[in-house]
Amino acid sequence: MSEKEKQSVQLKGQLRLYMQLPAVMAVLLAILNIWIYRMDRRAGLLMLIFVIIYIIMVGFLYIYSKSIIMKDLVEFAAQYGIVQNVLLRELAIPYAILLDDGKAVWMNGEFEKVLGGKPKGDAYISKYIPELNVSIFPKQEGDIVEMDVYCEDKEYRAELRRVSVRGFSETEQLLQMPEEKEYFIAVYLQDVTELNRYIRENEEQRLVAGLIYIDNYDEVVDSVEEVRQSLLMALVDRKINQYIAKVDGIVKKMENDKYFIVIKKQYFKQLEEDKFSLLEDVKSVNIGNGIPATLSIGLGLSTVSYAQSYNYARVAIDLALARGGDQAVIKDCNGITYYGGKREQTSKNTRVKARVKAEALREFITVKDKIFVMGHKLTDVDAFGAAIGIYRAAAALEKNAHIVINEISASLRPLYECYEKDPSYPDDLFLTSAEAIPMVDEESMVIVVDTNRPQMTECEELLKKTKTIVVLDHHRQSSDNIDNALLSYIEPYASSSCEMVAEVLQYIVDDVKIPKLEASSLYAGIMIDTNNFVNRTGVRTFEAAAFLRRCGADITLVRKMLRDDMDAYRAKAEIISSAEVFHKKFAIAVGRDLTIESPTIIGAQAADELLDINGIKASFVLTVYNGRIYISARSIDEVNVQIIMERFGGGGHMNASGAQFDHTDVDAAVAELKRVLDEMIEGGDI
User: Fold this and answer.
1) What is the edge-to-edge ordering of all strands in the sheet holding 371-374?
2) Which residue of 563, 569, 604, 633 has the fewest CB atoms within a 10 Å radius of its CB?
3) What is the rounded CA–CA span in Å between residue 482 and residue 471?
4) Is 627 left (phi over 0), alpha (psi -120 to 50) or beta?
5) What is the pTM of this model?
6) What is the mean pLDDT of the chain?
């Protein structure tokens, strides 16, 4: 450094003030010396000598020590930078500085160890840790991004900060940066491999609560001789205990047909992997019982508390039973998962439940003045007939009910017009959603028939405007069901909603009188949903049909109203002729450019007829309607089409289900259907 440059170097800040303090003291002493001189000349002269000596000494020391201080400061700054760099490089935490494009410009030794040695050439950090790419870098100054990353079989918690270095290019001689990119990305890693391992081990040790119910206990026990009943149940108990013992679990029998189980979460995955083989193992128990035993399993997983896990298990077992039994349902914080459910639930001959539900429904109807009944979107004959049955129940209790229906399909129109033309029915019997919404309040009652999913109802808004909701449905329950219903009567074994309503009507009032037209409507609903008493018919189905016949149901009238016109018949034949056989057991057909009024109804009828082909285990018909693709899925007994349709957000019965696509690309929908079938076959789900 030249002499001229040295002279141009100036101190500033606190150090400069410190160096100037002696000069300030000299000025103060001079002022004090003047004041003393005026008081006493001899004392003033004497003090003047000392002040002059002080000023000379201070001036000498300032001039002499300034250069020494400057030299020491420069040396300290250089040494401090070296020490700081050493400390940062030897820092025990992996630390690196990146450019905006992810290139590492500097990293300490620990970071190099993480990467397995010092990177060669232009080191882009994403080459070694793919998760640390440009897309996740902080976008604003001061932003912090935290994420888990993996490198060399270890887990790290990475923290990225955006550090601004404005003016860097003006002072830096070796590196030029665009003004808008004058910032670095600072990255440091924290090794959390051991921590995460302990967390996982602790999580795996958590207990999972579960409930196991024997679905058809009474029927199975009654199907064997009395002396063998205890042996049969002992074998079932043994199967359950052995299965849970394999995963180090505990089984406690609460009732004859109910068990409480506790297993560790680490073994829960094992049960998932074998798809709860206990469901099939129990069916193999046979000592002469004509009916195989089936189980429902409900498991609950909660990270909050064990009590919450048990509550989840209760919700899961209720859902398993509502879906027909013979399946495992797992409920956790993320949602609900289903396993099994390949067997149709055995119909129970007892009507106790129907009587109890009818009495509860009567209590609700008698205290409400406004009653609204609705089915699902694109109301079919079953939903319409069930709604008419509820109307008759309300009328028998001297209450007025309204049926909410927006769109009348071609197949429903003949039946609908019979009521429109009959002067004995009020003008406001049928309402659209727009007409019903202003009339509904918190004191109203809404009864939903033939569906248990809010988004599938004719008017979902009604469910939000009232607290009194009743659900009557024969479809298997799903996770997105109407959960705020005060009364829920869902029986998956029932053939149709009309069958359920026909039973309820017999207990609403004594000797209920059902007009001929209404009895015919209920009878038509049973006929449609059973495909003329071929599918899902049980003893109670025929009993309900017999009751309606006694009430005057006209079979000839029903048959005439349900006939197709020539265009619809041709469309159905066209759909069937387009069918292809997939995997030698699935029939897939498509209705393209159909000009008929209700293509979805024709699609469902075509799916039923495709089952008459030898070797076909399930049929799928896709039709386009109102800017959407509708799938009608049908089977006889070997394939559960409900779990297939649930993959598309739909549902229904084991042998009659449906779903929708929010587009009209039929080829893409068929390809997606085939992909799901392949996936489920490979996974053993169907």
Assistant:
1) 430-431, 401-404, 371-374, 445-449, 468-473, 487-490
2) 563
3) 8
4) left
5) 0.56
6) 80
